[in-house]
Write a structure and sequence with these properties.
The complex is a heterodimer of chains A (113) and B (230).
Chain A (H helix, E strand, L loop, with lengths): L10 H14 L2 E2 H11 L8 H14 L2 E7 L5 E7 L1 H25 L5
Antiparallel strand pairs in A: 1-3, 2-3
Chain B lengths: L3 H8 L7 H24 L4 H9 L5 H12 L1 H32 L5 E7 L2 E7 L1 H20 L4 H30 L3 H30 L16
Helix pairs in contact in B: 1-2, 2-3, 5-6, 5-7, 6-7, 6-8, 7-8
Classes of the chains: A alpha+beta (113), B mainly alpha (230).
């Protein structure tokens, strides 16, 4: 099922998606948005306007840090990398969302599996 | 290809950030738009359609400028750190110290355990009623930090702040004491004893109270805003 969920995505779900991706490897903004769209079959899609305020907020909290790096074509990209604080944040966020889906499942029979 | 940096800087001219920070934001957003445009072109879209498609990334530039200014503002960071870490820590520290002072004024007698060091004898001082009360203060510190959306580190620091303050104090005083009175096994055992009774033991009791509040978090109630459709 590839129905797009365009709205009602909480900040927490966006944080979880980004932290989970960055736990695998450092990525730049466009690539973060692209991978989230691709790996959720388009169910979650970040626009520029939704992505960057969230990334900057996470940077301010110290969950990610960023550095500029040029690719082979000479284009500068700002790569985001998970910090130790961000890694610490990931487990409780996952647990919170697991509990949320379990609660929703028991209430409305909506499974996240 | 359009000059995306110019597009961004024109539409976000009112972005309320220091100049360096503003240019960095413009460069990053422009790079994102450029890649979005190129991806659209690679899918076979005509130039005009690709530009229109790319500009759909932002519904309201004014709202985006506001969101980014708020997200990058240092003031929020300070407020967040103060709210989640410093306020609960200071409140907990003050409460612990006031409690100890009150107990001493009310005549609570310390329990003394005499220790024989090689060069002399000294007493380990325990205020058991205070130690028994500390788990409640540890719980309160961690709870206050959790209510402010503090992470595990902030909660733990807030919970242990009375013990941490005492450990820091002892670590600051100890070198001076050794410098003035000279290095001896007696002095070292005395310092270790002080760390144990005023640092480690209080930290353990505070931690016991804090444990239930270290895991889990209060769900965020903030929804991504008007232009923030994920």
């Amino acid at each position: 099922m590839t129905k797009r969920i365009r709205s009602k995505i909480t900040r927490g779900s966006g944080e979880l998606a980004i932290l989970s991706l960055l736990a695998e490897q450092p990525l730049y903004g466009f690539e973060i948005a692209r991978q989230i769209g691709e790996r959720t079959n388009g169910a979650l899609q970040f626009t520029l306007a939704s992505l960057y305020p969230l990334l900057y907020e996470m940077e301010k909290r110290g969950w990610v840090d960023a550095h500029w790096q040029a690719n082979q074509a000479g284009r500068d990209r700002r790569y985001y990398r998970l910090t130790t604080a961000g890694r610490r944040q990931l487990a409780p966020l996952r647990e919170e969302w697991r509990s949320f889906f379990q609660a929703l499942d028991s209430l409305a029979g909506v499974s996240h599996a | 290809m359009p000059d995306w940096k110019q597009v961004v800087s024109q539409r976000m001219a009112r972005l309320n950030l220091p100049v360096d920070s503003k240019h960095e934001v413009f460069a990053e957003l422009a790079a994102h738009l450029a890649e979005t445009y190129e991806a659209a072109r690679a899918r076979g879209l005509m130039h005009e359609v690709a530009v229109a498609f790319t500009l759909q990334e932002v519904r309201s530039w004014r709202v985006l400028a506001h969101d980014i200014a708020r997200a990058r503002s240092k003031e929020n960071f300070m407020t967040n750190r103060i709210r989640t870490l410093w306020l609960p820590s200071v409140a907990n520290l003050l409460a612990a110290m006031l409690l100890l002072m009150m107990m001493q004024r009310l005549g609570a007698k310390p329990h003394l355990i005499w220790v024989n060091a090689i060069d002399g004898k000294f007493a380990l001082v325990f205020y058991f009623p205070w130690l028994i009360a500390l788990p409640f203060l540890g719980a309160a510190g961690a709870y206050l930090s959790r209510c402010s959306q503090g992470d595990t580190f902030a909660r733990l620091t807030a919970a242990l702040s009375p013990a941490l303050a005492l450990i820091i104090l002892i670590c600051l005083i100890a070198p001076w004491s050794l410098l003035i009175d000279g290095l001896s096994i007696y002095r070292l055992v005395l310092i270790a004893g002080g760390l144990l009774t005023w640092g480690v033991l209080p930290a353990c009791t505070l931690l016991i109270g804090a444990l239930p509040f270290l895991r889990g978090s209060l769900p965020s109630k903030t929804f991504i805003g008007e232009n923030n459709h994920a």
